[in-house]
Amino acid sequence: GVSKAMIKALKAGFRIASKDGDRYLLPADFLIENMEIKEAFYGKTISEHIPIENISNFINS
Asked: What number of other Cβ atoms are within 10 A of residue 4's Cβ?
């Protein structure tokens, strides 16, 4: 069914639109320094991305 959050978003004016690209692609995130990939993270689901702690550590190193 439709979640309460989805109904609230629709009432606020947000619409579901088609997206470009293949819906079955999964995310990949890369931390790059001086044109060199320092860390590659490959998500197993559409919502899985590199942990924020990894990004913070990369920025502060």
From this structure: 8
